[in-house]
Automatic annotation (TrEMBL):
GO terms for biological process: respiratory electron transport chain. This is Cytochrome b561 bacterial/Ni-hydrogenase domain-containing protein. The keyword Transmembrane applies. The lineage of its organism: Bacteria, Pseudomonadati, Pseudomonadota, Gammaproteobacteria, Alteromonadales. Its main location: membrane. Residues 4-171 form the Cytochrome b561 bacterial/Ni-hydrogenase domain. Keywords: Cell membrane, Membrane, Transmembrane, Transmembrane helix. The keyword Membrane applies. InterPro entries: Cyt_b561_bac/Ni-Hgenase (IPR011577), Di-haem_cyt_TM (IPR016174), Hydrogenase_cytochrome (IPR051542). GO terms for molecular function: electron transfer activity; heme binding. It is found in: Cell membrane. One of its GO terms (cellular component) is plasma membrane.
Amino acid sequence: MTKVWDGFIRGFHWLLVVGLVTLYITGEEGMMELHFVTGYLLLALMATRLIWGLFGSQTAKLSALFHSPKAIVSAIKSSKSHVGHNPAGSQMVLVFFVLIIVQLGSGLMTTDDILVEGPLAQYVSYDLVEIAGDIHHINIDILLAAIAIHIVAIVMYRLKGQNLVKTLLTGKQENAAVAPKMKSGIVAYFIFIILSVLLLLTWGAEPLNSLL
Ligand code: HEM
Ligand code: HEM
């Protein structure tokens, strides 16, 4: 067994899932205090993932996500297992990162036109707030479609004999071709906690107070 996913990548994935589900429900139900607080925690999580993508384990590196079209096509055709995200899966990861950043960024500039507005709305023009609101509404549907494709792809890999979920849960892979350079995920959790506290003490203070 070879360690291929560090503790942060494994935790990041499931915290991301829980965070997005919470944001979807609270957004649709208009539970804005919880929506904002969860939004700031997800912002801290995503920022940590990007930082970890620069300094973290080899399989967490952002540079490992970029591949030539040829490598992507051959990864789709092949059923060989891969250490880390394969070139095709890497494209999905990049799409997720962009969609999540767009959702977070547009949220920070949007308003429900009644009680609350994102912390950046006051600094931008009214037109931009309107556009951010439209993007926040439309992008969520694209994100949902991407999640559906992601889950179908995971099931298809399972049918081809690769249990990617087990590898993501345990962090370990059987018959890995190489042993990637790993780093302790604890460092990343430390960064995540610091960013979360900073965001909750500033932008998050008001919604958090109303919740407590
Ligand atoms: C809200 C729903 C989900 C989102 C937004 C999401 C997003 C992501 C992202 C961004 C990654 C890349 C991880 C990284 O490098 O940081 C990933 C990987 C992965 N996800 Fe999800 N995911 C979701 C749900 C699920 C579910 C329900 C499953 C299980 C059925 C799953 C299984 C996996 C697996 C196995 C990988 C690793 C793929 C590989 O080996 O290359 N995901 N997901
Ligand atoms: C990836 C993170 C996020 C997701 C998935 C998300 C999702 C949603 C959803 C599904 C809605 C309901 C939209 C609708 O009624 O059609 C919504 C509304 C809203 N979100 Fe977010 N959101 C996120 C982040 C944020 C952040 C960080 C903020 C601000 C700090 C924010 C502020 C708002 C506001 C003000 C509304 C109300 C818009 C309206 O009533 O027109 N969101 N969000």
